[in-house]
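Lab notebook page, bench 4
Experiment: in silico fold of construct C2
Operator: M.H.
Input chain length: 173 residues
Purpose: comparison with the prior construct
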Amino acid sequence: MVEAPVNGMLRHRAEHYNQELGLRGWLTPIDQIHITLMGLGDGKQKRVVEIARHVGLLIQAAPFDVCFDRLSAFGGGALVFRSSNHSPALQAFWRKLSAVIADSPLQPFVTSSLEPHVTLLRDRRGVPKVREQIVEPMSWTVRSFALIRSYQGEYECPAIWQLTGQDDSLAGM
C-alpha cells in the first residue's frame, strides 16, 4: 500500500492524466493505491487468504526506495506507472516474495506474476490508445507490504507486514 502523502500525490497525477489524455477513467481510490506484484485471482476463499497471511510472515526485508517514471497502458484498460530502471530494490523484493511463494502451499493459487506497477485508473475504451511515455518521476520509500483481497471492485486488506530492516528472506515453510 502506498502511504500518505505519496498516495495523494499519485491520485493527483491520476486526475491530471485522466484529463490531459481525454480519458473517462475510474480513478483508484486514494486508500487503495498500491504497487501490484502478484495476483492470486479475485475473490479467493478464506482458506487461501489464511495461507497467504501465513506466507507473508515469512518475508523479511529492509525498507527500500522505488521510482516510477513511465506511464503505460496495461491489460483491462488500466493506466499504470512503471519504472524505467525497474527499481532494483523492488525487483529484489519481488524475487524474494516469488521464491517464498513458490515453495509454499500458496503456489497453486498464483494466477499471475506481474511487472511491478501502480494502477492509477481504469478506462477500457480510452487507455488502450495511450502510448507509453516517460513522465516526471515519483519516488518514495516502501516500508511495508500487504495482502489485498479484491472482489468485484471492492478491496479489503486482511494483512499488512512491516519491513523490519532485515534484508534476507526465509525461503521455506
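Observations: The radius of gyration is 16 Å. The CA atoms of residues 111 and 119 lie 18 Å apart.
Next step: discuss at group meeting.
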